[in-house]
Amino acid sequence: MYPDVVDLREFYESELGGLVRHLLRAPLRRLWEHTAGQAVLGLGYATPHLRMFAEEAERTLAFMPAQQGVTWWPREGPNATALTEETALPLENSSIDRLLIVHALENSEHMADLLAEAWRVLAANGRMIVVVPHRGGFWTWSAKTPFGFGFSFSLPHIRRILTHNRFQVERHQRALFIPPFAHRLLAPYADWIERNFAIFLPTLAGVLLVEVTKQVYARPVRERVKVLKPLLSLPDFAAPSPTPTAGRMT
Questions:
Q1: Domain-located, residue 240
Q2: Is residue 35 part of a domain?
Q3: How far apart (Å, rounded) are the C-alpha atoms in residues 136 and 204?
Q4: Which of 86, 168, 186, 201 is a plausible cystine mate for 197, CB 3.0–4.6 Å?
Q5: What is the pLDDT of residues 187-246, one digit of tens each?
Q6: Which residues make Cβ contacts (< 8 Å) with residue 144, sequence separation at least 6?
Q7: How is the chain split among helix, strand and coil, in percent rounded to 5?
Q8: Structure pTM?
Q9: Quick check: is 30 in a domain?
């Protein structure tokens, strides 16, 4: 079940939501250093994290599931969002170079179909990042944040899901080590906590960011069927006998 788009927008406009945007910026940039000249798509509620890519990408789109609702984005300039079905994206095959999925996979009731659509629209050399709540992290305990909705995942769990749906896991990052209930107290030390906890206490991460590529298997080449001679030669059919001519009457 998806959270309502109004609740998502209000969260990211809050002080805590602003901290989440800040803390996810660094791991996203480590995974995607450059997106210049590429087509970038955000699926779910990815707009808070798309702006840094929109400044350099050739085009940036944001698709929001019908079960969630849609909002205008960006606030300045032409709208780049659309309300879509999560299992039927209005895009051609292999048309997206970078796909960012946030607040979608953990809420979907059709996870395999959503990933099948993601696979379809992603280019053969494209890359996708899935941001999901980390099982055991502090953020899954709080229903006041979007990461407290839906499923949560361990790293082996999400890797297995992505692999079974024809993606190759390349890299991952962990983020949101600050507990949401202590963000005001710890905010001044947020960057230090993120860097050090990722090394020494990775199991306390609130979210996982997993980057994958599209598995494209080569199709086996069909061998030509060799026509074999029959083991036994077929008998020749006898030519039909000429019809006897009736004798002339004299």
A1: no
A2: yes
A3: 7
A4: 201
A5: 999 999 999 999 999 999 999 999 999 998 755 545 444 444 434 333 443 444 444 444
A6: 180
A7: 35, 25, 45
A8: 0.86
A9: yes
